[in-house]
Specification:
This protein is of the alpha/beta class and 342 residues long. It contains 14 helices and 8 strands. Strands 7-6-5-4-3-2-1-8 form an 8-stranded parallel beta sheet, with helices on one face. α11 links the parallel β5 and β6.
């Protein structure tokens, strides 16, 4: 990976600073990444020191510790960065409506009032295509975007023209964000031109909707492949790069996240365009969310701690965060069923 000298950021910060604009919804404050011509020399030059990455990742949970009101502030920030998700074969309109209600009111009002947060919402709702209209209607006027998984999610093996048409149909139905899955075989075969062309076509089909490229990193074989795939998708115009569908046997991990985040940093250093990051799958505990936020702050800086540049792909994470916030307020842990999602 290209080197970049950056100062180390301290994780502790004042509550008022971290919570400023916590409840704000994603805003188009950054110019979209337009992509660039495929630079194969850059791609081929990418190297990853796997042992060094793993050592760094192993130290992350113990390097940054936040307590009491600082921890509560970080957890409130995490809520504002969640793509609250339901992607089950038995999804119903009722379940999606309940999920949208939770996105609008993710934490009980008395907890929010104690934290001096009059309003707080999740970053987005993520659903299958058939549930877009239901979600858009339930969230009307809230400013919370609806994201839809697309392109033959999760395997991405349906005919190409159908994958492209699925994107167009989801955008027409009201999805403001599209989570696409790449063809893993292009990465495994080192066919970077094919991956670039595929991603470019998906980006064009999205139009004004932002596109998140799901790499399915658990199926790419090596961290070097993860780094190269991240770079190629950004060159093709991805607004976000995302670890996983949540359906693979291995989903978001800290080593993979470190590699993808540093690819984002390299791309920004070379082009001036910020690309977002979304870890997804397996992040279900509040303490894990804190580690990821500290990693983002250390590697990319405060600007990436906003919902237009960072999201958690999660369903159960919100329940554990709400439970931790109640403990902060009351000093006691409540039962998990008190914080149902849907």
């Amino acid at each position: 990976m290209k080197s970049c000298a950056r100062s180390e950021h301290e994780c502790n910060m004042q509550k008022t600073t971290l919570l400023s604009d916590t409840h704000q919804l994603p805003q188009a404050v950054e110019p979209r990444n337009p992509g660039m011509a495929l630079d194969l020399d850059w791609v081929r030059a990418v190297q990853v020191n796997t042992s060094a990455v793993e050592r760094r990742a192993k130290t992350l949970p113990g390097r940054r510790s936040v307590k009491k009101e600082h921890q509560a502030a970080w957890l409130a920030k995490a809520i504002s960065l969640i793509d609250l998700t339901t992607l089950s074969g038995d999804d119903t309109e009722g379940r999606v409506k309940r999920l949208c209600a939770k996105a609008l009111q993710p934490v009980r009002q008395e907890i929010l009032e104690t934290l001096e947060l009059p309003t707080l919402t999740t970053g987005a709702i993520c659903v299958y295509h058939d549930m877009i209209e239901t979600a858009v209607t339930a969230l009307e006027g809230s400013g919370i975007p609806v994201a839809a998984v697309s392109t033959g999610f999760p395997a991405g093996l349906s005919p190409f023209h159908l994958r492209v048409e699925e994107i167009r149909q989801s955008v027409a139905a009201g999805a403001a964000e599209i989570d696409i899955v790449i063809s893993r075989r292009h990465v495994l075969q080192g066919n970077w031109q094919a991956l670039y062309d595929e991603m470019r076509t998906f980006r064009e089909a999205c139009g004004d909707a932002h596109v998140k490229a799901i790499l399915a990193t658990g199926e790419l074989g090596t961290l070097r492949n993860v780094a190269k795939a991240s770079l190629v998708c950004m060159m093709a115009g991805a607004d976000f790069i995302k670890t996983s569908t949540g359906k693979e046997s291995v989903n978001a991990t800290l080593p993979v996240s470190l590699v993808m985040i540093r690819a984002i940093r390299d791309y920004y250093d070379c082009t001036g365009y910020r690309v977002g990051y979304k870890p997804a799958g397996g992040i279900s505990k509040a303490k894990d969310a804190l580690v990821y936020l500290a990693l983002i702050k250390d590697e990319l800086g405060d600007r990436w701690l906003q919902p237009d540049l960072f999201r958690f792909g999660a369903s159960s994470l919100l329940g554990d965060i709400e439970r931790q916030l109640e403990h902060h307020i009351t000093g006691a842990y409540s039962a998990g069923y008190r914080h149902a999602i849907g």
